[in-house]
Amino acid sequence: MSNQDATVNDISMAQVAESASFANAPVAMSLRNVSVAFNGRTAVRDVSFDVPQNAVTALIGPSGSGKTTLLRALNRLHDLTKGAVVTGDVKLGDIDVYGGTIPTTVLRSRIGMVFQRPNPFPTMSLYDNVVSGLRFNGVKKKSILDDACEQALTAAAIWDEVKDRLKAHGSTLSGGQQQRLCIARALAVEPEVLLMDEPTSALDPISTASIEELIGQIKNRVTIVIVTHNMQQAARVSDQTAFLLMAEDRAGVQIEVGPTSKIFNDPDDSRTLDYIRGRFG
Amino acid sequence: MTTLHIDNSHHIREHLRERASATIKRRQFVSRLMIALCWVAIGLAALPLGDVIINLFSHGWSSVSSWAFYSQLPAQPTLVTPDAVGGVSNAIAGSAVILGYALLGALPIGIGIGVYTAESDSRFAATLRLVVATMVGAPSILMGLFAFGLVVVQLGMGFCIMAGSFAIGTMMLPVLAASTEIAVRNVPATLREAGLALGAKKSTTSLRIVLPAAITGIVSGAILAISRAIGETAPVLLVIGGSQAFTWKAGDFGEALPFMIYQDASSSYPAQRAQAWGIALFIVIVVFFLSLTARIWANSKQKERR
Amino acid sequence: MSLNTSTVSSPSPVTNVEGRKRPSTSSRGAYEYVLLTASALFALIAAYFVGTVIWRAVPAFREQGFGFFSNAMWNSSFDPTVPSQFGSLSMIIGTLITSGIAILIAVIVGTGTALAITFLLPSRLRTIAATLIELLAAVPSVVYGVWGLIILTPWFQYTVGPWLAGIPGFDWLFGTTAGGQCYLLAGLVLGAMILPSYVAIGREVINSVSKELIEASLSLGATQWQTLWKTVIPTARIGLFGAGTLALGRAIGETVAMSMVLGSALSTNYQLLKPGATLAGWIATQWGEAQGSNQVPALFALGVILMVVSLSMSLISNRLVARQRRAATL
Asked: Which chains touch C (3 or more CB pairs under 8 A)?
């Protein structure tokens, strides 16, 4: 599933042809009538779809369509915002995310997140950054931490670059390396789902390509939900695509969800086609 | 290699999940406890501050609300007339005079330094900036020692209002310089460039365009410096000598409000201690009024400009 | 070299090996000379300030030698055959004890308060609390002195003191007799006094910690406290340290409140319920009777110690807060 040789502007059938293979995959997360409101004002309304396991689901749509808001509802990051209310059902496997059956901290360690800008902890070394999640969760054993560090950095395809300077600080890395460090940090706690909020928006094209390649590699160990404003990126990396749009009351609504190949080649809704063809947004 | 990592991965995951579930209760408990302690901290911080404010009003209000407080000279209570403490008119005048002379000297110099350090890249300006930043943190009593050494002894003026003004003025200088520098720096570069582009000289631009634009910041900085100076006790304590009379003259012994608090607070007469509370309340009201005005004015000006 | 980090400065100067040169070719007008004069005058004042304080202290240092730092006696002799003895040891230790208690309170309570204001209070209350804290930072220290002397001293004398003195096994710390004016009370009053300025800066520093770091921490499964303790505080540590240094500088230089609540006793008994003296406080309490005697240079010598300590702390804290401002922008 390597798409490195495709040019950025070219969305061809070949790129998305095989992406329907997840059709019978188990469901990692399911969303039913999920709405998010801030101080009574609805930002996302009635979103329902399933996130297939070990596949990449892309959330696309113009700005203001609530992609990021929806993503942040999945690991309860809106809990931090006063006045934010999430309604509907979000399930991680059988667990009701908002049901209170498991503590939010445990839940968040099972649904990791990578952010728009690389955000390594500035006062920690590379090593401490990667194992910080394990330490938060009570792991103290040096051998486990060492193994997890190497493992996560290897998975994030950055081990060879940094293995000799694990004591250095994150700020010594380039932007792309920092973002891979952050991916390693998120992977180290072995999450079932990894949420990625426009993970390449602050990166140069070469770093972007390497992160996209990395996404293709890590999806065999983690389910990925990625927000992107870049349709080519969605086409290149995802297996399933959800298209959101801002409704008349400025709330984001789901227009269409389906296999990426279908959304990009033969969408059911004309608005999806308009967006894909660049008519608005 | 791949198999090795898969085995390893499994091992790590097991350990992680086991540790996470073993520690979650404790971690949550610690978290709730510490968050509760943060609430306790905010309570502990509010307690003394609240107590100070409450005592100020309950003990000081009767003085502040009486006309005699402002109009009369202080009197010395005796066993026969324990409540005859008079007013503090001379101290109010003294504080005003000391502050007035201090501002006369400190305002132009302080603003001058601030504009200079904001507009110059010279090494002298850099040094000056460092000196200003360091002097801001100098304890005020040192300014009292300085004024004593220079004005009282070296210039031979003896204990006097002028020496107090010198001490207070020296104390205000770095504060004024620092706030002016920030205010001038905050003037948008485009405004300055517009002036220069019109062919105005650098000095004209600075005087006619930059300074008027920075005036809000400069004035609110000055107000903050004044509100800090009003309550300063240590420097005036060392050099003004103390007086029961009403005077404006720079060479006379002087009296100041905080100095009078210092003397009254340890009196054995309850009425004099109440007067100390009264002066303290008076100062706090003035200081609050000044800082709030500065803040509100600066905010409204800022909105106006946008 | 230059501390000029502003984005809004005059047309960028051409830098060469010799130093900086201004591109402007226009001659300096009267206006520039006015500014230069003011600045030069200030430089002169600053130099004269340091010079005067040191110069006036020289006789004391010359007379007492190293004994000025190791001696706890303070006897002004009017008999020329008996040498005067001036030592600053009591005041140095008194300053250390009171400032130590104060900074401990300010940092622990203040950091907690700053965290609570930033992360726990609802946003409307947050602004009010922040404004209130900044207003309270402007309350003159003599007001705290009045409060400490009139309200707290009797309370300490009759309630807190006897209770602490009665705790068995802590004689070494508190002593066995209760006092009103004492180190502990002075430390507490000083702590309450420097708390608002610590919180004002600390809150600003904590507020500047990027929200993304907090979210990253939470997303890894950290609890709220783990996020504050392991992510927020370490990221803000330089600025917090700077705020602490600034507060400590204020505590060390505090004068009138200390002379009001610590009493003015010189002893080498440093139990917390005993009265004592601080460097600045002692200058204020002795000033009146020192006039015309050889005590004045000795009091100036205390001022020199105070000046060296507070100016260097001011320098350090400025550097630290500036460094944090630069570092906080991710």
From this structure: A, B
For residue C213, the enclosing domain spans 91-328
Q: Are residues C58 and C192 in the same domain?
A: no
DSSP string, B84-112: --B--HHHHHHHHHHHHHHHHHHHHHHHH
B:C CB pairs within 8 Å: 296
Are C188 and C126 within one domain?
yes
Q: B270-305 vs B257-265: helix axis angle to the nearest 10?
A: 150
pLDDT tier, C26 (very low <50, low <70, confident <90, very high otherwise) = very low
C248 CA to chain A: closest CA distance, Å?
A: 25
| Contact state of B12 with A154 under an 8 Å Cβ cutoff | no
CB nearest to A151's CB, from B9, B15, B19: B9
- Pick A108's closest partner by Cβ from C122, C221, C231: C221
Residues 225-244 (B) with a CB less than 8 A from some CB of C: 227-228, 230-234, 237-238
Domain-located, residue B133:
yes
| Mean pLDDT within C112-126 | 92
Q: What is the pLDDT of residues B176-229, one digit of tens each?
A: 999 999 999 988 888 888 888 887 777 788 888 888 888 888 998 899 899 889
CA B1 to chain A, closest CA, distance in angstroms equals 11
Residue B249 lies in a domain: yes
Among chain A residues, CA nearest to B5 = A151
CA-based nearest residue in chain A for residue C227: A136
What does the DSSP 8-state code read for residue C271?
Answer: -
B100 lies in the same domain as B216 = yes
What gap in Å lies between CA B250 and CA B102, rounded to an integer? 11
Between the CA of residue B40 and those of A58, C104, C120, what are the distances in Å?
A: 45, 16, 12
User: Tokens standing for C320?
Assistant: 């630290």
Task: Find the residue in C nearest to B118 (Cα).
Answer: C9
DSSP A125: B
Give the amino acid at B98. Answer: I
Here the ipTM equals: 0.88
CB atoms within 10 A of CB B105: 18
Structural domain boundaries enclosing B29:
2-65
To the nearest whole Å, the CA of A153 is away from the closest chain C CA by 16
Name residues of chain B where pLDDT drops below 70: 1-8, 303-306
Q: How many domains, chain C?
A: 2
User: Which of C119, C205, C218, C224 to mutate to probe the A interface, most A CBs <10 Å?
Assistant: C218
Residue C162 and residue C208 in one domain? yes
Q: Would the pLDDT of C52 be above 90?
A: yes
Question: Which of the two residues, A80 and C221, has the higher pLDDT score?
Answer: C221
How confident is the model over A107-142, as pLDDT tens digits? 999 999 999 999 999 889 999 999 999 999 999 999
Provide the CA B303 distance to its chain's centre, in angstroms: 25
pLDDT in tens, B135-164: 988 999 999 999 999 999 999 898 999 999
Q: Are residues B99 and B185 in the same domain?
A: yes
Q: Let me know whether B51 and B117 are in one domain.
A: no
Show which subunits contact A, needing at least 3 CB pairs below 8 angstroms: B, C
Dihedral of alpha carbons B5, B7, B12, B14, sign: positive
B20 shares its domain with B110:
no
Residues C236 and C270 in one domain: yes
Interface of A with B (CB under 8 A): 103, 105-106, 109, 134, 137-141, 144, 147-148, 151, 154, 189-190, 221
Residue among A122, A135, A186 whose CB faces C235 most closely: A122
